[in-house]
Amino acid sequence: MLAPYTPSSPPPDLAGDLVLGWTARLGGRYRLVPDGCVDVLWTSTGSAWVCGPETSAWTFALPPGTEAAGVRLRPGRAASALGLDTPGARDRRVRIEDVLGSRVQRHVVEQVAAAPPEERLRVLHDHARRWLAVAPAPDRVGETVARLLAHDTGTSVAALAEAAVLSERQLHRRCTALFGYGPATLRRILRLQRFMRLARRPGAAAGIADLAFAAGYTDQPHLSRDCRAITGVSPGDLLGR
Question: pLDDT digit string (tens) for 6-24?
């Protein structure tokens, strides 16, 4: 099944850096689908992790009753906000101590665990504020690419390079440093996420072919190829989960 969680909008002062915060109570095996983001998360098993950018869906299992909380950084933001070696963290889960040091790891684990469930996100938001206070400004190229692809996943790499005032090779290098992979991969991931959002809308009754077109795919087979390549299952199976 897809991992269930309760999302929450970030505080206004963090909205430029975080997509959302979330809490969850888990138990069993779950599948996560790439979304272009990097999460920092705590679990009641006594661990805290940075989930690097994913290029394909991955599964994990947790004991029944495991509690978790996390904050989700906007695409391209983790490199500067956390000092993360984003391509080195691609398709990996990295302990916070390997990114921000053992002191931060200990404080996150201890302070979030000690907080009441309704306060856990506040604690994580406070940690995020401290990281961001000393972080360099975000790379404007990453912001430009993420903004364009969030609204138009059909934008060509050439058009993205032109908007960023870079050559396609320079754009690929900058995007890899920021997102963990090139702009074409980010476009595929965000397009699949758009398809999933459209399918989840209340009252959505369109067929898969219509949803594929609305999400920016050329046709249903295009969606099917991308969906299987990223998630390992068909679009119908993905929505069924």
Answer: 999 999 999 999 999 999 9
